[in-house]
Amino acid sequence: MKKFVSLTLAALMMVTSAYGAGISVNLDNENVEFESQQPVIVEGRTLIPLRGVFEKLGYEITWDAQSKTAVFVKEGTEVKVTVNADSFTVNGEENVLDVPAQIINGSMMLPLRAVGEATGLEVNWDGDSKTVSLFTDGAESTTEITTEITTESVTEQETSASVSKTSDIPEDELEILQSAADFYVTYFSIEAMIGSMAYAEHYHSYKIGGAMEYSYSENELKELIEEAIEECNMYKTAAENMNNSELSEDIVKKYISAVDATINYYEFMRDSIFTSKYDDLNEKQFNAKIESASNAIESSIYNLITVMMKSEEDVWETVGESRYNAGDIDKLDSDDKAARDKYCSEIGKTVESAMSFLDDYSTAVESSGKFKSAAGTIRNKLQSTETPDIYVFDREIMISCCDLLEKAGESVDKGAFTKDGNNVEYIEFEYSMFTFDVLYKAILGDEYEMKFFDEYSEDSDTEILDDIESRFV
Fold this sequence. Notes:
Blueprint: H1 14-17, E1 18-19, E2 24-27, E3 30-31, E4 40-42, E5 45-49, H2 50-56, E6 60-64, E7 69-74, E8 77-82, E9 87-90, E10 93-96, E11 102-104, E12 107-111, H3 112-118, E13 122-126, E14 131-135, H4 152-163, H5 171-213, H6 218-240, H7 246-274, H8 283-319, H9 334-354, H10 361-364, H11 369-384, H12 392-413, H13 424-444, H14 460-470
Parallel strand pairs: 2-14
Antiparallel strand pairs: 1-4, 2-3, 4-5, 5-12, 6-7, 7-8, 8-9, 9-10, 11-12, 13-14
Helix pairs in contact: 5-6, 5-7, 5-8, 5-12, 5-13, 5-14, 6-7, 6-13, 7-8, 9-11, 11-12, 12-13
């Protein structure tokens, strides 16, 4: 991939150790559906999301974020499971784990057999259908186990090996790639918000300028200024809601500073017109105050752009030459190009099909269900498709973007399309879809037609920044 999208990945730990391969989980012969993260296989053991099976069994679940411990209780049974611990407890009795509970794509994943059997469940694994069957006391097992000698561990390890032939990735490199991935997701999200807010700011300036020129009433003018302040605060809230990594933390802070500077300018305008707060200033002092407020906006935006560009260069130097990143696709040899075309074609078909629901926005934005379904379909396809080493980075970028797709769906449920889209939720929906579209288009090329934006070029993602930066040259 070319430099400007040599980016993100939210679950790179799954590259070598965890693959779902369409695992099904049945509880007393009824299929258990998982809303976001699907069951995966890690080191030969099936891990399932904490919430799902045990909620169906009637357990009350609590989560301690500080200790990263889940506690679920039912009729005198208390189970405590801590992320990355080598054991868990049932009513205080310790049970050893060969694979610990862990966080994958934001979900706590439990080693199913160990926890299930410790809480009284019968756990069976059918390797042919990749189905885990769970039975409570008194339930009749209808699952056929083809070979009792074949253990869960052996069968699942074979399944995992057949899903992906990607080479093992050193843990230290995984951590570097993970951090770089998180950075790029935030980078493009902030870039989308810069463009969106710049458009909104120009619109508000146009309306306020017209109101002053044509002598609107004080109430009408004040209302326009208050609307501008309110919208700025919505952009600030959307940025504060972002999940950003250490690498992108400074970018988010600088963006919020730019929004704060804009809010301060509008508040100064409002207070100088409608209050006596600045009545004691002479003309020179007043003009200096205006110039200071205006310069603060320009300075904060310039600082933001500088940090973004410098951070992107630093991250690229780290991951640009990675064996798991194709780099400049125009410089690939014929074999790698053929492998890339084949891979992108296979993934692209699934993505195009999964995203077709966006062809009709009137129904697409009715609920989060279609967004979550599309994200799950794409994520499962990416995890179960053999990926050459040099495209692992691209593959994980797309997996990470599935989280954005789900976030867009959540924003829909929270009311993104109420109030004509003038709310925090719509801002979050817009930057999520922008980032998803731009990155998928950059990776899949002609195999993906953008669904939220009509046009795209390799330079389009930098046009916003170039336009703003040109003001300071």
